[in-house]
Every structure is written in structure tokens, then in C-alpha cells.
Amino acid sequence: xxxxxxxxxxxxxxxxxxxxxxxxxxxxxxxxxxxxxxxxxxxxxxxxxxxxxxxxxxxxxxx
Length: 63
Known about the structure:
The mean pLDDT is 85. The chain has helices spanning 18-26, 47-50, and strands at residues 2-8, 34-38, 60-62. The longest helix has 9 residues, at 18-26. By secondary structure, the protein is of the alpha/beta class. The chain starts with a strand and ends with a strand. It is flat. The chain has 2 helices and 3 strands, in the order βαβαβ. A 3-stranded parallel beta sheet has the order 2-1-3. The protein has one domain (2-62).
């Protein structure tokens, strides 16, 4: 299973995960397995990243 993670630092409209989403979908990640956060990379409380913590065995996480 392919799992995709996307993140942007800013919550304003200048940054978007759209290009990251397109690249992950093109790489074969199913839309149901895409996770994202709009938060600083220095923060630990990122729900999208935490959702990737325990992937099924044999999974590949793409960022």
C-alpha cells in the first residue's frame, strides 16, 4: 500500500498542497490514503503525520 503525506507551513491561501497531491496521485497513491497538515514542520502535533505512524506491514510512505 502506498501512503502519501503532504504538508504546508502556512494556513493562508499562498501555500497549498495541490502540487504535492498531484505528485502523490501520479505516483500511484490512492486518494483514500492521502494525509495532510497545515502546520510548521517543527510542531509535533500534526494529525496527518500521526496517521502515518503505524502503516500496514509492507506499506511505503511517500512525502
